[in-house]
Amino acid sequence: MTDSEVRKLTIMPFAGALRGKVTPPGSKSITNRALLVAALAKGTSRLSGALKSDDTLYMAQALRAMGVTVEEPDATSFVVTGDGRLRAPTAPLFLGNAGTATRFLTAAAALVEGQVVVDGDEHMRKRPIAPLVTALRTLGVAVEAPSGCPPVTIAGQGGFAGGRVEVDGGLSSQYVSALLMAGACARGPVEVALTGKEIGARGYVDLTLATMAAFGAKVSQPDAASWRIEPTGYRAADYLIEPDASAATYLWAAEVLTGGAIDLGVPAAAFTQPDAKAHALIAAFPNLPAEIDGSQMQDAVPTLAVLAAFNRTPVRFTGIANLRVKECDRVSALSQGLSRIRPGLGVEEGDDLLVASDPGLAGQTLPAEIDTFADHRIAMSFALAGLKIGGITILDPACVAKTYPDYWRALASLGVRFEGEAP
Ligand SMILES: O=C(O)C1=C[C@@H](OP(=O)(O)O)[C@@H](O)[C@H](O)C1
Ligand SMILES: C=C(OP(=O)(O)O)C(=O)O
Predict the structure, then answer these.
(1) What confidence tens digit (pLDDT) does each residue in 110-151 have?
(2) Quaternary state and partners of this protein (predicted)?
(3) Binding-site residues, ligand 2, Cβ < 6 A
(4) End-to-end CA distance of the chain
């Protein structure tokens, strides 16, 4: 059976405690940042511990299409050789549903001499990019995105002068990261300022700044809502990418749900990514707090929401409005999936998600087909419910390839069994 033929996967409940060792793959966020800044550097950079998945392979492929040499000597390394310039690709850049690749390359395309079309799949074509387009125009970049979503057409003029730009990072912090990374290659200093004080997940901007610094960029922060980037360009570097914290949340949750012990090979405190904050909450299970603000650990919300279904008391998720513009509308997908298990288990209240917990769900058989809406995080989080409830079937399980192609193999290595062949 090929991956595309695997339409559904039923998780067999796991009676005991999950034990074993699973190393999460490399961080998607850091891999795609490092690939881009390495491509903008002069010389050869070796990225190790990298993620190889749909999102990072789309980024690598797009960089190759712009004249950068990106080699893959093994399953977790990229060797990137550039001459400090990106060239105009001969065809549109197709980036699937990779938000990072799409937003980061939209800004970097301003450095190209010639036209670049940034496009994605039907899901990406519904994900907003207008705030980034507006910001790039302020910097004098000729850019069009008629629908407010990809495709985006950039008429690159080989760079831009620099100056001050305001950007609304409310819907996505990736707009800010995109401007920061491209900013180091402008002809003069760039000041990026937030229009509001709010930003979806500030930790991702910190991740951007850390990667930029590792490749020689100089960024100062005049105040909490603005950054000044010097026109240094990037220096090639060897860079070790840490494991993916969002991927780790499924393993942490599987551990507490089954009372097991899974060795991730890296302590939670060692992660620098925002989702590592979820570890402390997961460790509190089955006594999760009555309210969880998901704004600073957004990609961990699906994990926490499914875990919350087994908590002692209900949990309200707040600060998650922008989950509606991720790979799918995650607020809706989570409430629908939970309510398929039991009506009313997940309820939307405005942009909040209310999970009506019930520890008694564990051990029951409640057949439910979970529509993943092609969203890897919906697939991976609802698989956790299947560890405790009989009859949980994940539709389109191959969608995990976006960020964690080995997910089903990782669960199987811990002893989890499936009905249907795992992709
Ligand atoms: O910068 C990044 O690497 C990311 C930022 C977050 O998105 P938004 O900034 O769009 O909320 C996160 O959900 C995404 O998976 C990765
Ligand atoms: C939101 C996500 O991805 P992206 O925005 O990078 O497509 C995610 O991985 O959960």
Answers:
(1) 999 999 999 999 999 999 999 999 999 999 999 999 999 999
(2) Monomer.
(3) 97-100, 299, 326-327, 377, 403
(4) 9
